[in-house]
Each structure stands twice: as C-alpha cells, then as structure tokens.
Amino acid sequence: MPRIDVDVKLDFKDVLFRPKRSSLKSRSEVDLRRTFTFRNSKQSYHGIPIIAANMDTTGTFEMAQVLSKDGGCSCPGDVAKAFGAGADFVMLGGMLAGHDQCAGEVIEKNGRKVKLFYGMSSDTAMKKHVGGVAEYRASEGRTVEVPYRGDVEATIRDILGGLRSTCTYVGAAKLKELSRRTTFIRVTQQASHMFT
Q1: Where do the domains of the chain lie, and which CATH numbers do they carry?
Q2: Taking the complete model, does pTM exceed 0.85, yes or no?
Q3: Directed axis angle between helix 61-70 and helix 153-170, to 10°?
C-alpha cells in the first residue's frame, strides 16, 4: 500500500509575517548584502543573494549584470518569505521574464507586446539546443508568452524595496537577521480581489 504524507504543507500564499517592534526609522537603514564562502570551491560571494534562474530567456549575461549591480517566486512578498524562512539565495525566473535584458525578440500580438518565456526542460529549449526531445524523456516545461515589461530596473527596485520593507516590519537591520526575527502567521486568504 502506498504511503500518504498527510502533514500540512504550507506555501508562500499560506503565511504572512507577524510585525514586531522595530527601531529602524527608514528602509534605507536595511543592509541586503551578504557574504558567503562556498565550502567546496572556497570561493566567496558578496552581494544581494538573488540570482536569475537557468532559463534560456532570463538567465542571460545582461540579466546577470543588472542583478550584480542591484542586487520559484512570483512577487516581492514571496522573496521576503523565502529569506524569512531561512533561504540563503533566492532564484527568480518568471518574475524576471519579459524584460529588455532577457533573450528573445519583442513580438507584437493582437496589439500588445510580448516575449516568449520557457524553461530549459521545455520542448522549445530542447528543440533549440539539442534538436528535440529525446525519446527516453518528456518535455517538463512550458513555453508561454509574457507581457513585455521594458527594463528590469523597476522590477528589481520593487523586489529589493519589498525586502527592505519586510526587514523594517520585523526589526531586522541586515538581511542575515531576517530569519531569526521572523514569525509567520498562518492565513487562509491574504489578498483582496475587490479591485482585480
């Protein structure tokens, strides 16, 4: 008989941060930079621990340059929750799709501008890089059209601003302190759909 795990599994949408007393007067007081030394390579990284996912359309050198300058998630709140739950790095794919720094052309369809977005396990990527899907495997990703979003700077500013706001809510002056100062509250609904 198969084993069924019945423990409750929580997702980003299932929790909110519980605010705490904070001595921070401004979001500008929050330091988002971290330093890591990797165990096997002994190399160090110093910066904001957000990286572009290895996807053909977002994992570009142009995107890496923008991220190094400034700095699974779908909004800035998800990024903050991941760090609050103890993540060392956060990978972004879909949040960065559709920007100027992403590979691919801007296509106009039905009067709106879009870009193609696909992961490296998608049918599109496998056809482009290895001539197709091997007969022993299946395509695990999708190819979707995402709205063209211009320069990525505004999106990065939203993500980092949300992260700084979260740190001020719980009194974390440094990103490294966020997980120690985080208490999550379980919720059933955290978004108002009144104006959507």
Answers
A1: 12-104+151-185 (3.20.20.70)
A2: no
A3: 40
